[in-house]
Amino acid sequence: MHVLSRNMQEVRLSKQNLMNKRNVVGRAIDRCGLIIGVEMY
Q1: Whole-angstrom distance, CA of residue 37 vs CA of residue 3
Q2: Which one of 1, 2, 17, 22 is separated from 32 by 20 to 30 angstroms, measured CA to CA?
Q3: Measured between alpha carbons, how far apart are the two ends of the chain, in Å?
Q4: Average pLDDT estimate for 11-23
Q5: 3-state SS of 1-31?
Q6: pLDDT tens, 25-39?
Q7: Tally of CB atoms within 10 A around 32
């Protein structure tokens, strides 16, 4: 049972890391999109 709960914690941490990375990538894409939008006009 203890091993299972530890694995669950690791999964939660890795999910959090994925979300953080996705947010950073999303912000970078948004910034690129804004730059592209300015270039288009």
Answers
A1: 50
A2: 17
A3: 59
A4: 88
A5: CHHHHHHHHHHHHHHHHHHHHHHHHHHHHHH
A6: 888 888 888 777 777
A7: 10
